[in-house]
Design goal:
The protein is α/β, with parallel strands linked by helices and 423 residues long. The protein folds into 2 domains: 27-104, Immunoglobulins (Immunoglobulin-like), CATH 2.60.40; 109-415, Rossmann fold (3-Layer(aba) Sandwich), CATH 3.40.50.1460. Helix content is 33%, strand content 26%. It is built from 12 helices and 20 strands. It has helices at residues 2-23, 134-147, 162-175, 217-225, 242-245, 258-272, 276-286, 311-320, 322-331, 364-373, 382-396, 412-415; strands at 26-30, 34-36, 40-46, 56-59, 62-63, 67-70, 74-78, 86-92, 95-106, 109-115, 151-156, 181-187, 190-194, 204-210, 213-216, 232-238, 305-306, 343-348, 357-358, 403-408. A hairpin with a 2-residue loop joins strand 8 (86-92) and strand 9 (95-106). It starts with a helix and ends in an 8-residue tail after the last helix.
Length: 423
């Protein structure tokens, strides 16, 4: 009798397992083997729940929160942010089923390299801001990006207009999806104009000096704000904030006294010239030899100067184009009212109160970046990358300490990734 009961119980359990197993969802295929984040994927199978929210769908273990349509034999879903290449699984209250094949998540990498050896004198009051290392910087940064599998574009000198840079960033904001990577590099002069929307404590906006006009930081922030959540942005800026370095104040852009003008011009001349001791160290790096004990033995080499705009040029450019800068400054949304949904890591050539050296063949910051990158041999994360560049830059020029900061919704995974990692 006991044996009959045991046998009956075993048969009952087996039947229950069979019923549960037969009712578990089964994934038989999907309409595409690969896709980008946000792409719509149709999953075929059976035993799905025709109520969308009652199916938990995962791509490589990451839950897809956007289930667009559900029937017993088909699910339509968007690939979620953070999705990983792997099996697609469907879980219901009756069990779980995995796909036989992997779904490949496609990520894209793009780079925009900007370098200006001069600017248009027509806008900058006859001043062309001549430099020699900025175009080589941009070419080198484009080369690094291409070697890492990114799609790269370059804008050199006259190509790097306000319209071209803003247009490229807007196009990329439309094109890129969550988890994609964008690397932007800028080499050239940095400047300042009067703040028009009240979001700067010192009353001044920082700028990139593009060929036909300055691009203010509020405009750049607006550009970053157009990128979708989950996009990873890495920015390198081999320039300096000339107005900050020169300790300019709001009144210097309006009607400074002759004494104040002389004071600012003297300060510019002092800062533009890199001290002889630092030149000796830099040239020893350029000729790839140990630092010589006798500075007199160092060959003169290229002119070593700081990428620093004269105070009088900053003032006159603003005054000559006052209506233009007032208009774009007032129209640009305040940074504190324009949140960035993507996450951007920004590594600049120096601290705000320092100058970036132009070596002729490169900027010092870009040269140190190339040496640390070491043709792709570098294997650390973004924090390691910044620290290694900073250490090298300070060893060559004690007055130049590259800066690291971030904007947007924090992405801790991106921070600890190797730079230029697309997938």
């Amino acid at each position: 009798m006991q044996k009959k009961r045991s046998l009956a119980f075993a048969l009952f359990i087996s039947a229950g397992v069979f019923v549960l197993t037969s009712c578990s969802p089964k994934v038989t295929g999907f309409n595409q083997k690969s896709g980008r984040v946000e792409a719509e994927v149709t999953i075929d199978g059976n035993n799905f729940i025709p109520i969308a929210d009652e199916n938990t769908i995962k791509f490589g273990g990451i839950v897809a929160s956007d289930v667009l349509k559900a029937s017993r034999n088909q699910l339509i879903v968007r690939v979620p942010n953070g999705a990983k290449t792997g099996k697609i699984s469907v879980t219901t209250g009756r069990g779980m089923g995995d796909s036989v094949e992997d779904f490949t998540v496609i990520r894209e990498g793009y780079a925009l390299a900007i370098g200006l050896n001069r600017v248009d004198p027509a806008h900058y009051g006859g001043w062309d801001g001549s430099l020699t290392g900025c175009e080589p910087d941009a070419r080198d940064m484009k080369d690094i990006a291409i070697r890492q599998g990114l799609n790269a574009e370059i804008l050199l000198t006259a190509q790097a207009t306000r319209e071209a840079v803003i247009g490229k960033l807007n196009d990329l904001a439309e094109k890129l999806q969550a988890d994609d990577l964008l690397v932007v590099s800028y080499s050239g002069h940095g400047g300042q104009v009067l703040d028009q929307n009240g979001d700067e404590a010192d009353g001044l906006d920082e700028t990139w000096c593009l060929y036909n006009g300055q691009l203010i930081d509020d405009e750049l922030n607006t550009a970053w704000a157009k990128f979708k959540k989950g996009i990873r942005i890495l920015v390198f800026s081999d320039s300096c904030h000339s107005g900050t370095v020169l300790k300019m104040i709001k009144s210097d852009f309006e009607n400074p006294s002759q004494n104040r003008i002389r004071e600012l011009n003297n300060r510019w001349r002092e800062l533009r010239e890199i001290p002889d001791q630092e030149k000796t160290k830099i040239r020893s790096i350029l000729i790839m030899k140990p630092e010589p004990k006798d500075a007199a033995k160092v060959a003169p080499g290229p002119e070593l100067i700081s990428r620093l705009v004269p105070a009088e040029i900053l003032r006159s450019v603003y005054q000559r184009n006052r209506e233009f800068y007032v208009k774009i400054g007032r129209e640009a949304p305040r940074e504190d009212a324009t949140p960035v949904k993507a996450f951007a890591i920004l590594i600049s050539g120096c601290e705000d109160n320092q100058t970036s050296a132009d070596l002729g063949s490169n900027g010092l910051f870009t040269l140190m970046l190339k040496q640390v990158w070491n043709n792709g041999e570098f294997n650390g994360n973004h924090l390691d990358f910044h620290q290694a560049i900073r250490t090298k830059a300070l060893a060559a020029n004690s007055g130049q300490s590259p800066k690291y900061y971030t904007v947007g919704i924090e992405d801790k995974v991106f921070v600890i990734q190797r730079p230029y990692t697309v997938k």
